[in-house]
């Protein structure tokens, strides 16, 4: 099933309500392998919820998610229909799709390297030595090899987020999700994190990035997805989207942000 | 006070320490198990634990000790005073420890849990590798307070015939007709025991703060 | 078990008088130790350094001693110095001494966390120290310390059970009396535990009210 032609991520008709308030309505999106998609939109538009529905941190009320062609969160039954994945099945499925959080969510009781190798060793059961070696390599790659043995609290926000990216990459995921990776950072640290994401895009990592950094989205994304009011309003190539938005809502949003 | 009387007091103090230690050694993990039942919202069991915790927290240790010592035999379980005392202290402190663990579980940062889930961890792994190593560190203060409270609560088991330090002191007092010296000696020994526990807590907390950079 | 309940029912006067004594001891202790606790806390906050340290050490020491030991000291020990009390009186004195030590600490820490500016503002308006305490500090402490005081009251109720050992005829004494005289342990102790439980629930209810009152006033 992992055919090259199948999209890396396909979400179809995702709906989600919280306490009777509709957050997502019929959101569908396909992301191709090696594609970088930036999801933008006003605060509260549902873009983070959409991202979290992709790895079942929020369970959609309806709709389907496929990762590499395989259904996510549910198991097809032979007689048609589906059943929800068991907790173990869901945990296993989540190893194929990794995530970077707004507030880093590093585990403070583990060293930087410990954070990176924790899941590879204990979830993926990789040999310890191999995981440690790869962990160090991943930290080197984000410029934090020298911080491997310190605890997260000694790092700056930008450094923490780069560790979080290494931690996600250590899973060797098919897809990497970013939930506003720079929103909790001081302005002078945004650049170092975006540079890492940009490098990953150039290397062909499949990524979905929810962000408020319009400059970054325009420059690094293959496609822009604009969400407002729980719906995808517009999808387009960055150049076209920012220069000639097709919808009035996108035009107003861009105008407000570009000021 | 004679040397013999002083030795009696020391024996009583050792009994007190041994009873408290046994209660703590079993009550702290038992409290964690109860807290997990509540935290995971295990159907039915969770409600049972809630009632148990509320009832035991409201019951004086002395009443609870009498209940266990006199009621268990009618269910065919005969316990000597010392095991009955240890059972009382364990069940009592477990109820209080349950609330401490549960409080710490409820405020455990959600984002860390989500990160663990996003990296494919199952609940047992998440608990063992991510939550527990931090949970005991953040609970150490309240757990130690509960230990000192339990230590101060142990004299209650004198009522079922265990000769711990308070009982030993009152015996010496009754024999010598001079109760104040043994009582004051017992008070000093108690204070020392509590100082030791609190000093131990400070030591552990300082090490944690130095190592991981979060104050507990 | 039904037979046991029947016995407890037939001897309900005994149980109720034990319960009454527990409640009375608690209320009497509160009536005395609350004001003493406040005075002690004010003293610890305002007294000259040297004196304050001695008193603080004394309060800390009291908090290291188990309740039963203090009860023994009062009931068996003080007669050695010529101070003799009935069991009930000795019980009340023990409760008062013990709880006052804790309440002093509770009120002191509640007073410590009051915002400095607030007190400075009061002084700037020319309020004298007694007036500041009466008008500014104490009303706030009364509400902010309510949950901790509530916990202490529950501890107090439970401590009072230990007074059975010095023959005060409170609730646990009554339960134990029934249990040994009628050879039916379950029902008397179960009833006693339920009564303690209900007392604690009432205290929690009152504290809950106070907390809500505080929220509605101070947000």
TrEMBL record, chain A:
Its main location: membrane. CDD domains: ABC_HisP_GlnQ. It holds the Pfam family ABC_tran. Gene3D superfamilies: P-loop containing nucleotide triphosphate hydrolases. Residues 9-254 form the ABC transporter domain. GO terms for cellular component: plasma membrane. It is found in: Cell membrane. It comes from the Bacteria. Keywords: Amino-acid transport, ATP-binding, Cell membrane, Membrane, Nucleotide-binding, Transport. It is a peripheral membrane protein. PANTHER family: AMINO ACID IMPORT ATP-BINDING PROTEIN (PTHR43166), GLUTAMATE_ASPARTATE IMPORT ATP-BINDING PROTEIN GLTL (PTHR43166:SF9). This is Amino acid ABC transporter ATP-binding protein. It comes from Jiella flava.
UniProtKB/TrEMBL annotation, chain B:
Keywords: Amino-acid transport, Cell membrane, Membrane, Transmembrane, Transmembrane helix, Transport. GO terms for cellular component: ATP-binding cassette (ABC) transporter complex. It is a multi-pass membrane protein. It is found in: Cell inner membrane; Cell membrane. The keyword Calcium does not apply. Its main location: membrane. Belongs to the binding-protein-dependent transport system permease family. HisMQ subfamily. This is Amino acid ABC transporter permease. It comes from Jiella flava.
UniProtKB/TrEMBL annotation, chain C:
The chain crosses the membrane at residues 20-45, 57-75, 87-107, 186-207. It comes from the Bacteria. GO terms for biological process: amino acid transport. Its main location: membrane. Keywords: Amino-acid transport, Cell membrane, Membrane, Transmembrane, Transmembrane helix, Transport. The keyword Nucleus does not apply. GO terms for molecular function: transmembrane transporter activity. Residues 19-207 form the ABC transmembrane type-1 domain. CDD domains: TM_PBP2 (cd06261). InterPro entries: AA_ABC_transptr_permease_3TM (IPR010065), ArtM/GltK/GlnP/TcyL/YhdX-like (IPR043429), MetI-like (IPR000515), MetI-like_sf (IPR035906). Belongs to the binding-protein-dependent transport system permease family. HisMQ subfamily. PANTHER family: L-CYSTINE TRANSPORT SYSTEM PERMEASE PROTEIN TCYL, MEMBRANE COMPONENT OF AMINO ACID ABC TRANSPORTER. This is Amino acid ABC transporter permease. It comes from Jiella flava.
